[in-house]
Amino acid sequence: MPDLHIAVDTGGTFTDIGVRRADGSLAVWKVPSTPHAPDEAVITGITGALEREDAQPAQVTRLVHGTTVATNTVLTRTGARVGLLTTRGFRDVLAIAHQARPSLYDNRVHRVPPLIPDELIVDIDERLAADGTVLTELTADALIDAASALADLDLDAVVVSFLNAYVDPRHEQEAVAHLREQQVAPVVIAATDITAEMREYDRTSTAAINAYVQPKVSGYMGRLAAGIEEMGIGSRLWIMQSNGGLLNPETAATHSARTVLSGLAGGVVGAGNWARHLGLDKVVSFDIGGTSTDIALIRDGEPDETTAGEIDSLPLRLPSVDVHTIGAGGGSIAWRDSGGSLRVGPHSAGADPGPISYQRGGTELTVTDAHLVLGRLGTELLGGHFTLDRDAAHARMSEWGAEMGLTAEEAAEGILQVIAATMARGIRRVSVERGVDVRSCHLMAFGGAGPLHASDLIHELGMESAVIPPLPGIASAVGMLDAPIRHDFALPADRPDVFAELRRRAAAEMGTEDFAEQLLVDARYLGQSFELTLPLAQDQRAAFDELHAERYGFADPEAEMEVIVARLTATIGQPQTPQELLTGDGGDGGVEKRDVFIDGEWITTPVLDRASLAAGTTVDGPAILNQFDTTTYIRPGQQATVDAHGFLHLRRTR
User: Fold this and answer.
1) How many domains does the structure of the chain reveal?
2) What are the residue boundaries of the Acetophenone carboxylase-like C-terminal domain, all occurrences included (predicted)?
């Protein structure tokens, strides 16, 4: 029986299932997501995909899953009741945060509240100096009192985060051992076990996020693993994590914060793999879903990474792909501000009730409705399984446009122009603001709505080209299939034999010494309050100066450099599957012609079936390409070419 690789990506509206056969060919399947119990849609989707392939569960030799459980738990504030034990005098570290205000001159805007409220925080007499010297001993009596106070709070989890514990975690470990012995809560964690880096607020926030989502993630992993085992799947389950690598469910259940960006990381990893495969040096990964757009910069096939991310404005001090997310997607709602100007997003109609054209009771116009009114979208999606109501969308667009003195078509064009400008700003954020000329970049567009907007964006920004993968709607799922197993470790750089210690930790956590390693450091000029992460080098100073000049436009040869953190990235690569060669039927792909409103006039436009286009086929715009999981729009003055592996390369001809 031939092997199958399956990836499952849980989204807000649909759960995507990507199937890769032994010959490299791909298949796609989608089922409605089940937000109340995401594992139900995962099992249903895998079952349906196997039935479509006429395959048995034992044929699955790789199973990868991208989950949004941790993300949604933080965003919806539905996590655990978490308490904090911290050093006396530092109970307000989460409330004070960075002292940055979201909008400096708007007194109506407030920071998001911390995950641990003040009434669930207990402080204790203990103190380490910045060099690890004990200033105040941690006593047994103090621990007894703290345990009693925490036990009275009826907590689901407790975080122990002591000042300067990243230098020496012994006090944290003693406290954790005592609190577990006293059973003050089902989960007790030391902040240094989650991240052992300086900056007390960031470290405590990361541990708080981990504790907040851990019960939900742990329960989900347990249910999903049991369901997979009951099905008789031939592979163990792997979980996508924020850094673009895979994690086993047991580690994901305890280090749950590593999965906060699980869902969006798969697409970035896939885009990096495709960029290497196609020989593209600078690529902007552009993933548009129903609610948001995730944008990342990829250089020489490697996505930019960060060790200082955030979720819902809360710091997350863990390695992750460096993704910029904006509130712009197919469900983004069009509205007018107090001055009467047209705005789009960031609020979204979501999946239910969704856009007006979904016929689920939605009353607000969205980007999807605009595409439909203009003829870019047809009335049937997902191979006819999903129908859009164009008449309802057009009627509401006519009413709304009349309020601004516009026709329905002019109002719809305005919506797309505004959302294109928002997306263009996001692309500049990851390119121009990092010293990269956006005109030298290729746009890797995927997600359900990415190919609809790609032509507008390369036109707006003057980019080299847009590249659209064979199955854009499940690109995030497919990207996960080639992700390596990966664990990251970090320690203060001033420890003796720090990299030897990191290697020992990696071998212990991964259960093997047979892994590839990358050694990195966080360095800065003395006096700076931020660092740059770069590979360990023989001439570390020269490498740092070069990176600093690239990122910020200057280097300071007179300043002293200091190395703050030592890092080790340990990976175990997955065996690669060959790319499928395209074998279209050689026809012109013609399906129908449809009137599309373009630049103020209706133009009769060919609608083609992308799957039937053979390698080497070129399509001149205007044109529309239909496929099961997305629709691609090609503007006038652009041309699309299909390569040997089914990638669509969209370029400007004028």
Assistant:
1) 5
2) 498-652
